[in-house]
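Hi R.,

Here's the chain you asked about this morning:
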Amino acid sequence: MYRVFEALDELVTIVEEARGLPMTASCVVPRGDVLELLDDVRDALPGEMDDAQDVLDNRDGMLAEAKDSADRTVTDAQNEAHRLVAAARAEADATVAGAQTEADRLVDEATARAEAILARAQADADRTIQNGQDQHDALVSRGHGEAERLVAAGRATYERSVADGRAEQARLVSQSEVVQAAHLESARIVDEAHGEADRMRADCDSYIDSKLAGMEETLTKTLRTVARGRNALRSGAMADYRD
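And here is the predicted structure, written out as tokens:
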């Protein structure tokens, strides 16, 4: 390729140094030297130039063929893309359906567990409330029985003391010198009987109050247990809510 440029430079030099013809722009050049240099240029040009010329001559046909090939490639690519999109959509639909089924199953299981926990909490609450009611009834019954027993005992003691006082009073009335003392003793005995009856009634009230306080504590714990159960259901917690 270097020889091509060298020969062209020599041709330019020959033309520049050629002797001109009078009254014209033409010149006289050595034909043999020029033809020899042109042969050198033609021989020095690579064969790819001819191939390039062939490509230029067949450009339209090659472009049409390339366009057809490109169109076929694009069509094939679009068909493949449509196929892949359809396959991906089908797979996505199957995945969504499976996920929906699994979600429905999990929701059903969670609902069943929540209902079981609610039923157990309700049963525990009912049982605890019933136990508390039974204890309350038993305590009230025992309290009433104990109160009646204490009141009866107090009344019997009171009546016995009154009878003793009246007997003592009758005995002392017959003795003029001790009438005043008899009245005083009788009053003291009656006061003691009243005091004993009041004390026994206070003891009975204290006993009943202590039993009712214990029952109130039991019912309070029961209500806290029921409240924790309801809170556990509302928050969706599946752990055991009891202490």
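One quick note: The radius of gyration is 64 Å.

Cheers,
M.
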